[in-house]
Amino acid sequence: MPVYLSPEWIEEAHAALEASGLRTSDGDQFSVEQHVDEVVFHMVFDGSGASVYSGPAADPSVVFRQSWDTAVAIAKGEQSAEEAVLNGEVTFEGDPMALLSHRRLLTHAEDVFAIVRARTTWG
Known about the structure:
- By secondary structure, the chain is of the alpha+beta class.
- It has a single domain, classed as SCP2 sterol-binding domain (Nonspecific Lipid-transfer Protein, Chain A).
- The chain contains five helices and five strands, in the order H-E-E-E-E-H-H-E-H-H.
- It has helices at residues 7-20, 68-75, 81-86, 96-101, 103-118, and strands at residues 30-36, 39-46, 49-54, 62-66, 90-94.
- Strands 3-2-1-4-5 form a five-stranded mixed sheet.
- The radius of gyration is 13 Å and the shape is globular.
- 26% of the residues are buried.
């Protein structure tokens, strides 16, 4: 079972997202960079599919930053991302319109990650 945000976890998340068939409806690229304490990874969505990679994105549409505890609480469904943003536990940088226009895509990506989360240990 992969440890949350380990290289193995990111590989499993990548495989699940790649197999999902998710893609942007307009064909444009949308990327989300996540900073969880010292761990950085990003998701890329475009007209050909979706993927997850370790490290920063070349040109992220949006960037989120949060602590390990906050990220785990959100991943486990113990706290909503919206609540964490409103409480200042998650900070946001980037294009809010890109985030809003791709909100459904991100919701579907979270559904895809459910299988990975079910196999995840939380370290």
